[in-house]
Structure prediction request, 355 residues.
Amino acid sequence: MDRKKMKKSTRSSLITYAMVIAVYIIVEIMLNTGNITSLMSGLLVPLCVYVILAVSLNLTVGILGELSLGHAGFMCVGAFSGAFFTKVMAQAIPSVGLRFFFAILVGAAMAGLFGIIIGVPVLRLKGDYLAIVTLAFGEIIKNIVNVLYVGKDSTGLHFSTKDAVSLKLGEGGEVIINGAQGITGTPHAATFTIGIILIIITLFIIINLVNSRTGRAIMAVRDNLIAAESVGINITQYKLLAFAISAGLAGVAGVLYAHNLSTLTALPKNFGYNMSIMILVFVVLGGIGNIRGSVISAVILTLLPELLRGLNNYRMLMYAIVLIVMMIFNSSPKAIEFRARMMEKFNGFKKKGAA
Prediction:
């Protein structure tokens, strides 16, 4: 039975990887033949960012079973730490590609570290309380970045929360983070190919974690906290591990996002409440705990407003309606009963076809 389950999970994983690779090949062919508009080609990197965010949040919401609304905050940490590293190390590492690679590692490490720092006190909370605290964390990070001024000169780094003048930079000094104006001049190192590679790495990490002994322990914590603790599972350790990995991957998405822009600013539309809600909608629409579903829903909900440009102003309304409908569909006893009946009929048709 375990072998059958293993074969099924392996097959499902391979289908997910194959789906991502197939989409990449199709898009590359369309790009090379000029069948994709400049507007749509500009959406390819953001699309990869949203897929990574959706898959990583599903680890916290779907696999761990905790409602987090601070994912945009972890993305913000990754974006600014990655872009900061790229700017500071411009002379030490002339190669843009190599700097971008190290920036991804730095962004993931910083976001993961913040995940641990926030997770230690926050993961003791439950439900709505956890959601509110993580939401507050996202807003705090965004506001700290907006009042932070960092510069560099021959004597080292200078910090201020007043203005750029108070940094008192020497000759040849450079302001790197300029408060609400953010970071400018980040190289455009992010590409669709790199985005796809990062998606596959993210899927590999999450899927292997879920199918491992650690993943089963995390799901045991989700399903029954008391029963998991009674068999010797360290609740805090596994919660913190899942939360930190999820935050680190959100940081990777942030670095990819930052290196697709000339100017990186901590605006509400980039790293605010709406961004966290949008990522949560991706997870809910794709199915809580369904990794492949998160990939598909992120792609659909990102492309839909662009394909229906006239409805672009109603994007958040559309997301809210989708969220309500999916929550009802997944939680309503009648809806659950209806799905069970449909599955029975479907299985009946499959048996008849096999016979």
User: Anything to note?
Assistant: Strands lie at 149-153, 156-160, 174-178, 183-184, 263-264. The first strand starts at residue 149 and ends at 153. The radius of gyration is 22 Å.
